[in-house]
Write the structure tokens for this entry.
Amino acid sequence: MKKRPKILACHCVLMSPAKRFRADRCRSAGFTLLEVLLALVILAGLSLSAYQVLQGVMQNDAQTRIKVERLATLQRVFTMLERDFSQAVPRASRINGEMSKVVFQAARFQMESDDWSVSFIRNGWFNPGAQLPRSNLQKVGYRLRENKLERLSYLYVDPVVGTEPVVTPLLDGVKSFKLRFYTNGAWATEWSNSVQLPRAIELELELTDYGVLRRLFLLTQVASQ
């Protein structure tokens, strides 16, 4: 009797697609510690970069605001200077209670100034309907004190002895304040004419941030009052 050959059966365990999907999902559900640390490092780098960009934007915005405000202040100061100089009139006023014949005072280290100073009478001080007990003339002046350009003004054209001017700080960061005067077709570095106004004034300001700025102002030539 012949023996049947033994057939070695290979018992292969086949998994259904659903079971295989669940097994693969279980194997890929978690992250290793290295992957978590790497993700944290990347997130920290992105956050730091975003913070630096935000800080740069905020600093640039702050600097822009400061510069815009500074330029606006300069524009206001030059507008005020032009308004005062363009309405200057050759009228004398009292100095320390005594009547003076000087209609335009401009010199260095006067009026407690650290550099040039100027004082004169201007017209056009608004007095609606002449209701206020004062003239439409006003005594004004400019000086440099402690790196600040200041405007001096008086309520009355001829102040009595002891009357202190109203001091209005206009501009800070001013290193120097200089004046030149145009008359008889030439520029002069000093003014000694006590009965006449110059035809034009060159004003020079040296600022700590913008350097030297120069502006010209024309004066109206009218008869003495």
User: Anything to note?
Assistant: The chain has two helices and twelve strands. Residues 83-218 form a domain with the Pili subunits fold (CATH 3.10.610.10). The first helix runs from residue 17 to 27. The two ends are 156 Å apart (CA to CA).
